[in-house]
Amino acid sequence: MSMVDQTRQGQILVLTINNPPVNAFSPGVPEGLHAGLDVAEQDSGVKAVVIIGGGRTFIAGADIKTFDLPREQAPNLRGFVARLDAFGKPTVAAIHGTALGGGLELAMACTYRVADKGAQLGLPEVKLGVLPGAGGTQRLPRVVGAQKALEMMLSGNPIKASEALQLGLVDELAEGDLLSAAVKFASDHADARPLPRISERSAQGSPEVFAAAREGIKKTHKGQLSPSFIVDLAEMATNQSFEAGWDAEARLFVQAKDSPQSRGLRHIFFAEREAGKIPGLTKDTPTTEIKSAGVIGAGTMGGGIAMNFLNVGLPVTIVETSQEALDRGLSVIRRNYENTAKKGRMTQDDVEKRLALLTPTLEMEGLKDADIIIEAVFENMDVKKDIFGKLDQIAKPGAILASNTSTLDVNEIASVTKRPESVIGLHFFSPANVMKLLEIVRADNTSDTVLATSMALARKIKKVGVVVGVCDGFVGNRMIHHYGEEARKLVEEGARPQDVDAAMHALGLPMGPFEMSDMAGLDVGYLIRQHQAKVAGKPKPDGWLDQIVEQGRKGQKTQAGIYDYPDGRKPVPSPATDELLSRYRAEKNLSRREISPEELTKRLTYSLVNEGAQILDEGIAQRAGDIDVIYIYGYGFPAYRGGPMQYADEQGLGNVVADLEKYGQPPAPLLRKLAEEGKTFAQWDREKGRA
Ligand code: 3HC
């Protein structure tokens, strides 16, 4: 079947694009569309052309997979758009589903646009580190004005068809069948001359609009390239010819597309979708329907987890051991919702509706009807085993029994039940109602159904689920442990904590390792270190971080940790820490040296990469892309860097290995092997790790 079907409806030629699933502008599509326009040009019986998408959507954009092809092999969207703009007969875009990026650009080069009521239209290119590259930056401001165009192009978020109608971006909303409405519209406008062309209009926009946009992107898109190109081009739409803007757009598009930022964002686009695919699990793997949930523990994690379910209308039973803890947990949930309502992001009515779905209880028996039960009590194996033993007695057959453990062995937890196939780890990240990541820990006996249901549940509660294997810390925390260790060493060698954190800010992370530790609470790591040393019969740990905790400085919660927190939240370098470090270095005879920002960034980032490679080798993560998704959604790694593994690919794995050796971190065997073979993690994913 051709990628573009031609059919005649009287004097109207209908071109239907068939490139499932989203009718991206892939190789074959422009050829088919050009052939259609050839017919329309040559056949005097054709008065107008309708372009429509077959299947679920209009064109969802350029084919992102072709971005790295040599120019001559990539489908020429601009060429087709230019032909449409100059075409001598009326053309009508019939839009349903999502007209995104190049799809909307193509539609804007048509003479008219008719949309289904449920359609959405947008220019999301900024999310891929590029800009609308087929006339979008020049046409959209000419239709909706520079301000609205900037809002759409900088957020990347689509608008609904009804709004598009109001803005004049579409000419008509179809009543009933879209194709019939578009064909009728085309017939009614077949003789309209001169043909209205958006490229011939002028665009409105004041200097203040562009100044505000330039200020805005410093906060919303700090460190990114394409948003400032978008603002420059939108401004050109208001004060230069269409041709000048169109040419500049082509140049800047290529510059943005060929940047590491765009490669990083595109990598994450595909990695996120790939993460949903689990080797061995097909689309037909049966899932169970989750109609209600149970949560054990109403602390920070339990409360946040419960909110995820309430937010999508699922009833939750929440269990605590004392009325006081239960009341406290409930009041935190209420306060969270009320704060959201105060910001105008939900109504008080919604607050009450969500809370009405919540059943607090002191009885585990209350969980007997839940389809999924998530245990979120503190990290202690004996306590968890006790709970799972009880759950085994109480939960209905087929219920999923999940632990929110962040470190413990899910196999051991499962071993106390008679149904290990129902047990899984669901590791939420704090604040659990906000962070998008869900590590889904597949234990040895977890059934395919439980795994597939958990993946589907992640999507339902709007999380990005990534499947990981059982090990201490799973993927995210196991890697962060090494990162924290490296940060600690860097300070011992002479760096100031604020310099270490600044090195990660420079990479685009909102927090460095020490700000993160202060926020999480320094006592957590302290207690683990003390416990591990005791169990191993080793002397009591006495590092500089231990000494800080022993001064009662536990982090943000005590308003003092590695940093001081005079206003409760904002970290300020601490003279007390400086003093402690000077004394510590003197006591331990540590010499101090200047460490460059470059060394700081490399050592910290590569400590993540090195452990990531080890995790891949052990099969704890299925793909390097999964690790990147974990770091973007769970740890604030900037998406435009593509995650730590993609960042390493960009640096060249040979360089990463050489640097690790230089800095005394032994490279993981897989990393060394890939470097020797001149390969990347992305190649490893393609060759070995993918489903
Ligand atoms: N190019 C190539 N593949 C694409 C694609 C695109 N533009 N858009 C989606 N796909 C693929 C996905 O990778 C996925 O593949 P898979 O099944 O092998 O994993 C499949 O299509 C289905 O996508 P989703 O799983 O995301 O399906 P949803 O129904 O959840 O969402 C969507 C559909 C809203 C269209 C979403 O896919 C999306 O947002 N796509 C990206 C749209 C976009 O960014 N367009 C602009 C492209 S850049 C451009 O046009 C440049 C131009 O200005 C020159």
From TrEMBL:
Its main location: other. Transmembrane segments: none annotated. The keyword ATP-binding does not apply. One of its GO terms (biological process) is fatty acid beta-oxidation. Pathway: Lipid metabolism; fatty acid beta-oxidation. PANTHER family: 3-HYDROXYACYL-COA DEHYROGENASE, PEROXISOMAL BIFUNCTIONAL ENZYME. Monomer. This is 3-hydroxyacyl-CoA dehydrogenase.
